[in-house]
Write a structure and sequence with these properties.
2 helices; 16-stranded antiparallel barrel; single chain; mainly beta
Length: 512
Amino acid sequence: MKKIILTTAVTLASLPTYSMLAIDDAELSNIEGRAGITIESQLHDTTTIGEVSYTDSDGDGLRHTDSAGIYLSDISIGASSSKSTIDVLNDGTLNINISDIMQGDVWVRDIAMGDANTSFGAVGITNFNYDAAGSYNLRLSPFSPKNDGIKQAALIFDIDMASSSFDFTYVDEAEFSLLGERELFNGNTISYTTQFTDFKALATTVYADDSITDDGRQWIRMDLGSITGSTRLENISFGSVTDGIAATSQVLGSAGFSGIDIDDSSFIALSGHAGSGLVGVDLKVAAKANLDNFYFETNGNRVNFANIAIDTDARGVNGDSNIPFNISMDTVNNGFRKGLQFAISDVSGLSATVRDMSVSQGAGARDIFGSIGIENINFNGGTAEMYVIGRAGSGNTGIETGFSLPDGTTLDFTINDFEYESDLPDAERVADKGGEVRATIEINDFFVGQTIDVVKLEDSEGAALKMTFTGMEGSFDVTNFSAGTRAGSFGRIVVDGMQLRRGYLIVDAIGQ
């Protein structure tokens, strides 16, 4: 919406000025505005923004050199146009519908975390192809969060992507020319085309909510509405550009998902926090969702994960409680380590299951080979920690990531090859068909660290994604280990003091 407002303002400012004549009441009564107004906006040239930043400033209005933050700089938006219809409905709702979008290329040429010099790379959204059957609708509407008759303002989004598409590109070690339209001069790239099919996200409602926690904080809450349709990431590729010349990219494959069903109790809430010298953001996440299918495809061959169910809190009766878990995010800049750190807590019943894992030729018949479930993940009052750190000022060595679980984390693990009467999530299982392996796992002292970088391969073989493991350790206590359809345990397995010192993994596309 910010882009549209800016575009409209620029367009109106460029119009010639005329003198205005008064209209008397009789003439005014003959004008009907019930259908609202339509504004066609156009931006004829590229718009540029020097920097947009979020920092942990102490609020004195000054930018401190040691402030940790997120910095987006050297932003450009190409020439674009759109049509907006604005109407006030009978219930007082301000309704804005945006359509006929001709979107120019959008580039953020430097993304930095920690400080403005620690680059994570560049991102571009280009070749936006808007389907005329789609639209973006925004309502500023009266809303009663508790259904008690007390109303407040809420933003309600209805987005219809129809069959729109766009190209996404991430560039590591990005260098852009300083002339003309600032073309990509050097860098390693990851790119793909996002193709939507009948994709709609309806009734996503954003409003202020002070009832999420007991400390009186105001949270910006987003209730997730109905999401339907399919999305496909086509031609996921690794490539490189040297001295302005792009090498032939290597296509890894394509991926996609379809059949999203999100429970209306699902939401995401955002609020600020302060303490221990840090200023950051808290997120509350509660989600119950089903996904018909997620797949990865290469050379026409697919691996499918179907009938996926996610529940962030399965403790209530039939999983109806849906209590949120918490993610606290802080920016970090302590001289040597610059980036983001996360703390994940209040996890006490998170579950994720995949009913059918299978392989197929394209979207054709599938050979199903089983299901997997990781259920009832419980941190038992502990906190998991995660970080994303910039490795060098120029971004030449990628990023460093790490993840640790709190001691005493427990989960239930199952894998089976049961057969069901149909593909429906609530289908009955066929008796005496297939078996199951089950276990309850307790995890202690778990940590994994790695660096991630997009690198050029030797002998001009293109680019690839390299993940170097800097360490992995942990202890595992496996109980209630059993198999088959009969009750009874095989016993207990304990793995103590596991340590992986160093290793790496390269993800590369096979040449055609």
